[in-house]
Amino acid sequence: MNETSPNSFRNQPDDRGHFGEFGGRYVAETLMPLILDLETHYRAAQQDPAFAEEFDDLLEHYVGRPSPLYYAERLTEDVRKDAPDGKGAQIWFKRDELNHTGAHKINNCIGQILLAKRMGKTRIIAETGAGQHGVATATVCARFGFPCTIFMGATDIERQKPNIFRMKLLGAEVVPVTSGSATLKDAMNEALRHWVAHVHDTFYIIGTAAGPHPYPELVRDFQSVIGKEARAQMLDRTGKLPDLLVAAIGGGSNAIGLFHPFLDDRDVKMLGVEAAGRGLDKEHAASLAGGGPGILHGNKTYLLQDEDGQIDEAHSISAGLDYPGIGPEHSWLKESGRVDYDSATDREALDAFQLLCRTEGIIPALEPSHAIAAVTREAMKMERDQIILANLCGRGDKDIFTVAEALGTEM
Amino acid sequence: MTRLSSAFPSDRAALVAFVTGGDPSPADTATILDALVEGGADIIELGMPFTDPMADGPSIQEANIRSLGAGTKTADIFAIAQAFRERHPDTPLVLMGYANPMTIRGADWFAEQCKAAGVDGVICVDIPTEEDDSLGPALRAQDIATIRLATPTTDDARLPAVLDNATGFLYYVSVAGITGQQQAAQDSIAAAVAKLKAQTDLPVAVGFGVRTPEQAADIARVADGVVVGSAIVEIVGEHGKAAGPHVRDYVKSLSDAIRSAR
User: Do B178 and A34 touch (CB under 8 A)?
Assistant: First the structure.
């Protein structure tokens, strides 16, 4: 791996924040000076060993990293029962659901709150869909003593009540957003509106690898701890690299965090799994499969939209994937052909959710359940000595009410 | 002299009036635009509706929802602009909106449509100077003004970049915030306009949060133009199809105040 090689997939974005034709800084002028200031501070932090030291220390002692790398033996056996002779790859999980707060989101929040502190900001805002990023943000705000306001779509609040209570326990103010479809994209609009009116003292902790430059880059960098650990752990445990990486994609932060450290390992294939909702021909949240390039929330990327560029409402059973866009680096990785993208429906995710509960004693979040659905499909086609590594990016405690309702079970 | 540059008289400030195109419906917009002209507006800003107007406050958000709910398409906006140009050959019309509807079919397509419809300038909220490539060159190639926004956060070091390739006029957003909320203090507006005018020959129009004739007159004493949007859009929201006369009377109250300000 060589960061400076012109053939590297790891040296994006360019100095204007573009990943090929994607990314960029499509924000109102009021925010532009702040975005430039954030970039300046991030570059300084990257050069400062003390920043990395504090980040690593918090990840180890507060978040609980490194997260384990786990061979899912019973899931692997289950897949092999139905696989053609000799087929059925080994399934391994990166256990980021064991992090403090129950998802990968905290990795990024630790990095961004350290940046906020460096920049002298005194208030934190964030948007959240499933509530995992909201909980992670509220958590780091409590840990560092920052007042915290979380914008969340009213529809999402309804389906993620336990996380609302968690955020409140952690001292955050949760602002319901009723505009538009009252989901994640509208929460992001409202957070941007609030930010533009409070630029002087407020830091916006964006939860996924999207938004204006440098957010996609810095979120990726903070989440890359997932892939760096996994790569070293896999080499240590098996003496080789995995054959296939799989991760669910909403905005794409857990996927880019897993994929990025492997991008120049040419023999490692990668698969990002979008939410196909009720089906790609119906309501879904798969912007790569069913959308086209456009500009929203500060970056150019694939979006669900009509011919006039009006944004379509996304649908997924998983609130965390219910977003009509995707991080710009994924748009570029798709067009460059380095990463493959597929999708899983609500139904497939629910099946995978239950399968993992029963075979491994792990209740996954609905977001990685989409990845698990794709993992079982892919494992069937691969040789037994091949290895699939999937990111188990969140735990499912928050989703049990949604799953019960989908399965028609009274709780 | 272009329509835009001749819209800023030397002896008084110009009144720039904004409404969202297609609100309450594409068919009703012509009457409302005529009411703006009758009331004394010098420049018309026609908003292109967008599902995610993230720089706008509740009033203009609701106008976007009403317009899209009435089925407004980009083609309707250009048809509204073209019909306006035929009725009002001398009144400049500027499109204001967000990057995605403007660039989805390509910047060249958008610029050609603007030219064909007689549009004089474009304000794109979320294309800052850093991303000018996405739209600016195509518009300027068709002689469509690329109107830039300057804000209280645009500092001296950054201003030259904002002014680079700015044409038509400069729109000073007087508060760091979203549309239609509060107005900045008069002193800070006067100081900001003086600073901007020291660095550009373009007319400077000031907007965001201007509601009353008194506020408009105060700004008219220090700036080349006064932009009013949310307050007009609220009248359209309240009266719908029948908004024309109400819009005209309100705009006239602003225009009268501006004409007697200096």
Answer: no
